[in-house]
Design a protein that fits this description.
homodimer; 514 residues; alpha/beta; Rossmann fold; 3 domains; 20 helices; 17 strands; 37% helix
């Protein structure tokens, strides 16, 4: 068998059975191999940012890597923005990137570029296969690397001849190294902080945001009086009725400073020392108050669940019960459409076991609190600040969890970066309800312009933040890619469209003026 | 004045008066400065690949750089694919990329990344400004670098505090170094090749594809019996009636090998030793025949016009006339829509002084020959093989040349990568007629799958090349972004829509089944 087939067999045997692809000539042998080996689902995206964002959504929900299939340096370049988000989310992903055949790379062909150089900023591991006999072994290593630590992006570059040349067959995938067990000293230090008389925060991130570790953290908080918070941006939170309720650090830097001002100690559990999204003149970068002592219980890549159990024992939380959120929805709102009433409406109607993909940016502030008591669901966020993840992330989450409804909360400006994902929603008939918040502006930048001290903006500056003239029509954009869509001009219409979309399979898009 | 304003003033004084922008928080001071300084046209793109492709189109037509304004590593990442094309086109571009404030970069903020690492593969020059007082000087250097040699991509990274801090005011832009004068030996060697009895090719690329150097090349060919050809992919060819007619090396490798098989010598004039787009099993990478001697008259970055004059003198072409293409259009075709009749139709109707942006890929083979005798026009191509350049390139060309009609010949699969450009067509009311070749497939890959020897593709492989299920509706996509559009179901309808679009200002899109 050729190198491409040896790689496909290696990936499938290693548990990698989903590939998000936007292939070109140099990847044709990989594509052809997919028909000779059963077991790989291949999902086409019409732009590479869709592919990488979908792989991120898949990895966050499946807790295992998808492969991407990308075309040389420029194709990988198009995938970088969402790979950046995946790196920050610690999502396992295996990029398979075709390159020119080894002998061809010495010439200045049009598509020749430094593929490794493009990969490096958004990959924990980069390797170019030397020959067809190395491809399977390199692919097996990529799988292992992707599952190492908290989860990583691994990029394997395949010169075309390594795909078409004769291989030695598939290679076995090794298990990733065990997660690091945190030291006795770290547990003791966290215990001492929690048993001090000072106001203490448990800041919980990464894989600790699943329901089991959150329950353990809640028991620790019950035993010690500590407060729980999550970082501003998180890959995935398990929340809703029957789970631990959890606020997040606010995005606006002044609100975050105020929120955290009372704490004297913080214990980091899979989270990092919280930093403001951006720097602003006259504001600090780190948002914990001066003099607040930071204790690390567990880094994101450590064995967090085990560390939490030991800490619970150490603080005597063994017999405490976690505080769980009761089922409690807002009433279906009436009146005019506003960000607040939309938030309440989604809280009232969010279906059981939903996956919420939140790239609502400035429009979504009311939705997270209004869904706190909705039936249990997962909440996926923009982790790396690179907008344009929502529609792709929803794609991958829906592929990973075909029996669940994905609700994509999508700001219009951000949605435009990767709107091609809607076509994949349609082709794969994915169960995704997309709500487009149509404010026709980069609304967050209107605030940021003032926050950074750029006062009295003129018309040229304001034009750069204004998405009207012409207005985007998301119903037409969706229909142009085969997704049924409608515009909700009232709360009643939004309620009806949202509810209807949940009852039938496949994608639906609702544009809401706001 | 702050660093941002010192940079804007430096750019404008240096002749850089157009900025294609997709800004974020860290670029807000630059945006705000645009209103305090007259003379910079700022054009918003809703995706960074639109911005970089537009800067490429602008630079190719204006022969000077536009600036881009991009948001940190991921924003630059989204721009890379079309920057790759710009590098291969030797287009001068100045990327202005915001980064976190210097003090903020040490923390793992969500948008923190290795911006220089992202820039390097697609930039000839990368610099991060140290402080607000360096920004103007760095910006001036970027302008000079962009205009050095054949034209280059320069990337200037501005930590936010360098934009908001106090500067020393604008800096003067130095002229780029003079282009290298080719040596007497190179002229003598080219002369000897041309005066030999062996079949000789003048392969002409880069800036030699403008009408004046092409006329000089034609006179040389007249005097020596050499044949003229252009490379497969070119940034800009001045062609049509009253200009030198020029065929290009064929894209399919076997056709290129056949086309070049008779030559024993080739003189490179602003072109490189021709290489096949991809490597194929059993085919050579370089397409000149074995034993053909390659002589370099001028590298792309050399003073090509001066070299051609000296060569013309050396071979005694002083009194020769160039062979110029007479005005000669095909008749307006009748009958069924086909790639051939569409080609003839565009040849029959192409307006005087048009700028043709050709990303028609597999659908456009008939158009280049059918427009050979159309009124004088410019022909812009995909230079780096990274698809998704057409609609952005048309944007930039139309901004650079507001009095000319841009005709964008756009394959549907490629168009989807950067369809957001249509919104900018509408906002700026650009004079662009876009023809979408709607074959609903990555048709080139259907051929390539066989060419690389991946035989008997199965359904999974074929699905990766198939853009139907669902069908894209480009009329809706265009209307969703404010561009008037229609689908031509017959040649008569296409003729009518195409002609009408030329008569009125602003953009229009025609979807043609093919």
């Amino acid at each position: 068998m050729n190198g491409a087939e040896s790689l496909v067999r290696t990936l499938i045997a290693g548990g990698v059975d989903t590939c998000f692809a936007n292939p070109g000539t140099s990847e044709m042998h990989f594509v052809a191999a997919l028909d000779r080996v059963a077991g790989m689902r291949c999902v086409l995206g019409l732009f590479e940012g869709v592919v990488s964002g979908a792989a991120d959504g898949y990895g966050r929900m499946a807790d295992k890597p998808a492969a991407t299939l990308l075309h040389l340096g420029p194709g990988l370049g198009n995938a970088l923005a969402n790979l950046h988000n995946a790196c920050k989310a610690a999502t396992p992903i295996i990029n398979i990137v075709g390159d020119h055949a080894t002998r061809h790379r010495q010439y200045d062909a049009p598509l020749t570029s430094d593929v490794e150089g493009v990969a490096r900023p958004m990959s924990a591991w980069v390797k170019t296969s030397d020959d067809a006999r190395s491809v399977a072994r390199d692919g097996a290593e990529a799988v292992t690397v992707s599952l190492t630590g908290a989860g990583q992006v691994a990029t394997l570059i395949l010169p075309a001849d390594t795909a078409w040349g004769e291989s030695d067959g598939p290679a076995a995938v090794q298990s990733p190294p065990s997660k690091r067990r945190v030291s006795e000293e770290m547990v003791a230090e966290a215990r001492a902080a929690l048993l001090s008389d000072e106001p203490t925060l448990l800041l919980i991130g990464g894989r600790a945001l699943r329901s089991a570790p959150l329950e353990m953290a809640s028991r620790i908080a019950q035993a010690t009086g500590a407060k729980l918070l999550a970082p501003t941006s998180n890959a995935r939170i398990e929340r809703g009725a029957g789970r631990v309720a959890l606020d997040r650090i606010f995005y606006p830097v002044q609100q975050a400073l105020d929120q955290l001002s009372g704490f004297r100690r913080v214990v980091l559990i899979g989270a990092r020392n919280p930093v403001a999204f951006f720097a602003y003149p006259g504001k600090p970068s780190l948002v914990l108050p001066p003099g607040c002592t930071v204790h690390v219980l567990a880094e994101p890549e450590d064995d967090i669940a085990e560390a939490l159990e030991r800490l619970a024992d150490a603080v005597g939380a063994g017999d405490r019960k976690p505080v769980l959120q009761p089922l409690s929805r807002p009433e279906l709102p009436r009146g005019a459409i506003s960000l607040e009433t939309i938030g309440a409406l989604i809280g009232a109607l969010l279906p059981e076991n939903a996956i919420v993909v939140d790239e609502s940016i400035n429009s979504g502030g009311f939705i997270y609190p209004s869904t706190a008591g909705a039936p249990a669901h997962d909440w996926l966020q923009l982790t790396g600040g690179s907008i344009g993840i929502g529609l792709p992330l929803a794609t991958g989450a829906a592929v990973a969890c075909p029996d669940r409804r994905v609700v994509a909360l999508q700001a219009d400006g951000s949605g435009m970066y990767t709107l091609q994902a809607l076509w994949t929603h349609a082709r794969e008939n994915l169960n995704i309800t997309t709500v487009i918040f149509s404010n026709r502006a980069y609304a967050s930048l209107e605030t940021e312009l003032k926050n950074v001290g750029a006062m009295n903006p003129g018309q040229i500056a304001l034009d750069m933040l204004d998405l009207s003239r012409p207005d985007l029509n998301w119903v037409k954009l969706a229909e142009g890619m085969g997704v049924e869509a409608a515009r909700a001009e009232s709360l009643e219409s939004l309620s009806c469209l949202f509810s209807e979309s949940l009852k039938r399979p496949g994608p639906f898009l609702i544009e809401v003026p706001c």
